[in-house]
C-alpha cells in the first residue's frame, strides 16, 4: 500500500505538466495512476444522478419522457471526452434522442471542477479546485489527505450570441426533445469501502444543492442527491418457491455480489449460478451468528415463508448492528399486506404487517437503514391449482362475472423487480412498490388457456360473497386449504396494482409480459 504515499495537494489550481523541483504535487504519471486506480476502483461509488427539483415556470413544458436518473460507470480511467460521450449516450438512450443530435463538442459547453475533503491533525477542511482537463483532476486520488474526491461537470446548451429573451425562447420546448438544458454531473470516489460509507454519508456531501444564474427563467434551481448503490446482497430463502426466481434476477442484473444463507442441516442442493457465495448458519439463525455474517452486506432480501415473523425480525435486528442499509421482507405475494380485509381473512397478512411495522420502527430510529415491500400479486407460474385451474381436466373456476382485473407476476419478473429496487435505493426506500407481469381478468385467462390447448374448457362460477363466507368458516376451523382459497379470492378481486399510487413498473424499468406467451410456456411444461 506504499503506492498511496504521495505529497499533499494544496488549495490551488492543479497542473498536469511536469512539476519543477519543490513543487507541492507530482506530475501526472499514467503508469502510477493506473496502479492507484486499481486500488481505488473496487471502493469507488458508482455514479447515480437524481434530479429532484426543477422550477415549474410556464416556459418549461411537461417532460414526462425525461428520466431523472442517469447511471454511468464510475472509473478512474475515464478521459474527459469519454465522460462527455457517456453522458450524451445515456441521455440519448433514456430519452429516445438520436446521439448525433447531442454531440458534446458542438452543442454543449462543459466546465470541470472538483471538491474534496481532507483530514489534517488540526481540523477537517473542504478544498475546492478548478482544472483544465480530466487528467488534472485524477491527481486528487494521489494525495494521502484526500478521503473523498468529487468530480463535477456542468453541461449547458450553447446559446452564445443571442439576446437573453431570444435564448429563453429558443430553450422553450427543449430543442432536443425532452433533453433538459442544464445538467450537473458528479462522480464520487472514496478510499473507504461500502461498510464505511453509510456512517459518513450525511457528513461528507450526501446532498448537493447548486444554484445557477443565467437562464433562470428556464431552470433556476436544480438539486441533486447522490446515493451509494447497494452492491453486496444477502439472500435468505433461495431454495423456496420464490427464491430461485429472485436469485436469477439478482444474478442477471450483473451488478451484485450475492451471498445465500443456508441452514447447516439443509439438504437442498446448492446449484446456484457461478459467483454466488453460500454461508451456513445454525438452524435457528442465532443473532450472534447473523451479525458477523452480515458485516459488509448492503442489503438483505428475504424470500422465506411470510409467516416467519421472529426470523425476519431477528434478521432485521442483526442488520442494524451489522450496518446493512436495506431490507426487503417476505412481503411478496397475492395481496397488499396493508389491507385490513386481507388481515381479517388470512392470518399470514397479519404476520407480514408485524414484520413491516418492525422495519418501519427500525428505519425511524436508524437513518442509515431502510426497507422496501414488493407487492407482486399472485405468483403466476407457481401452481395452477392455486388459481383453481385444472389443466388435465380442462376445468376453470371463476368468481362472479370474471371481469374484475387483477395484477399477477411471474417469478422471473419478480426477480427483475427485486434487482431494480436495489439499483434504485433512493426512489424505493421506506415504501410499498407494486409491480406486475400483466393485468388481466379471469375471462381473459380462460381464453388464453383455451387458445393454447385448442379446446373448450368446463367453467364453474361462484358468487364471491357466498364463497368467502363458506371458506372463512372452514379456515377458522383449521382448514389450511380454505386459507389458500381466501388468498386466491383476495388476489383476484382486490389486486389491481395499476390503480395504486405506488405502481412502479415504469420506475423499475419493467416491460409487461405477453399473456399468451407465458400461458403457452406453462401448458408446455405441464
From TrEMBL:
UniProt GO molecular function: oxidoreductase activity
InterPro entries, alphabetized: NAD(P)-bd_dom_sf (IPR036291), NmrA-like (IPR008030), NmrA/Isoflavone_reductase-like (IPR051609), PCBER-like (IPR045312)
Recorded superkingdom: Eukaryota
Entry keyword annotation includes Oxidoreductase: yes
Residues annotated as domain NmrA-like: 232-462
SUPFAM superfamilies the record matches: NAD(P)-binding Rossmann-fold domains
Alphabetic keyword roster: NADP, Oxidoreductase
UniProt region (Disordered), positions on chain: 1-29
Protein name: NAD(P)-binding protein
Gene source species: Aureobasidium melanogenum
